[in-house]
Amino acid sequence: MNAKNTMTIDLNSDLGENVPDRVVSDDSAMLELVSSANVSCGFHAGSPEGIRATLAAATKSGVIIGAHPGYDDYEGFGRRPLDVPAATLQAQVEYQIGALLGLTTAVGGSVAYVKPHGGLYNAIVADEAQAKVVVDAVKAIDPSLVFLGLAGSVANRVAAEAGLQVAAEAFADRSYNPDGSLVSRTEPNAVLHDPEAVAARVLRLVQTGQVEAIDGSLVDVDAQSICFHGDSQGSIDMARAARELLESSGVTIAPFAGAGAWT
C-alpha cells in the first residue's frame, strides 16, 4: 500500500539501546511520538532489564513492537560491516528474535515485525546471500512476522519471494543518494538534525512519494514507515516536529503491522 495515496504513515524508532554507561536515546519521550518501536535484541546495544523496560512501556502505550536484531557487535553499536558465516548469522538472528519474543511475552505484549539493525540492515540492502539468511531466520521463528526493510532493497524482495509480508521503510534523518540508497554515515551531511527541515522532508515524502537526494535530485520512495533514529542528536525534536506537521496536514499516524495496522 502506498503512503502517498492513503495519507497514512507509520513512524518508527530504534529503542531499547541504553545501558547506564551508554545512554543514547530518550525512549519514554519517543514512545509518545511513534507508532512502532524497533527494540534492540541485545547483541548490538541495550541490557536485558533495559530492553524489558522499553518493551513494557511500549506495550502500555499501545506502540507496536518490532524485533531489531543486529550483528554481534556491541563495541561498534552494530553499525560496522562484518563478514559472518551464514550458519552463525542465522543462529544469531534466530536467537535475538526469540529472546525478544520471550521478554515481550513476559510484559504482556507481542512482537509484530522484524527490522534488522545497522550494519546488517545496510548489508542486506544489496547482499542477496545475507538477506536470504536473515529472511530464513525470521521464517524459522515466526512466518507471520512482517519484514521491515529499506524501500527498494534486495532484502525486501527476498522476503516477499519467501512469502513474508513486507513493509518498506524510509528515513527522516538520513540523506539519500540519487539511487535511493542511504549516504554512508562516514560522509558529510549523512545525518540530518534540523527539526523543521526534517518535518518538511517527511511531509513531502508522504504526500508525493519522493525525497530529495544529497545532490538535489528527487528520488521515488514508496514507504509505509518512516524511521527516526533514537540516538540522533535532536531526535525527539525532529520526531515531534514531523508528527505535528503531518497531523496538521491531514496525515494519519498508524502502525503498518500488528493491532490497528493500516497496510
UniProtKB/TrEMBL annotation:
Enzyme class: hydrolase
Single biological process term from Gene Ontology: carbohydrate metabolic process
CDD domains for the chain: LamB_YcsF_like
Keyword Ribosomal protein attributed: no
Keyword tRNA processing listed: no
Gene3D superfamilies referenced in this protein's UniProt entry, alphabetically: Glycoside hydrolase/deacetylase (3.20.20.370)
EC number annotated for this UniProt entry: 3.5.2.9
GO MF annotation terms: 5-oxoprolinase (ATP-hydrolyzing) activity; ATP binding
Catalytic activity: 5-oxo-L-proline + ATP + 2 H2O = L-glutamate + ADP + phosphate + H(+)
Family membership: Belongs to the LamB/PxpA family.
Function: Catalyzes the cleavage of 5-oxoproline to form L-glutamate coupled to the hydrolysis of ATP to ADP and inorganic phosphate.
Subunit structure: Forms a complex composed of PxpA, PxpB and PxpC.
Database matches in NCBIfam families: PRK05406.1-3 (NF003814), PRK05406.1-5 (NF003816)
Protein's UniProt name: 5-oxoprolinase subunit A
Organism: Brevibacterium koreense
Record gene name: pxpA
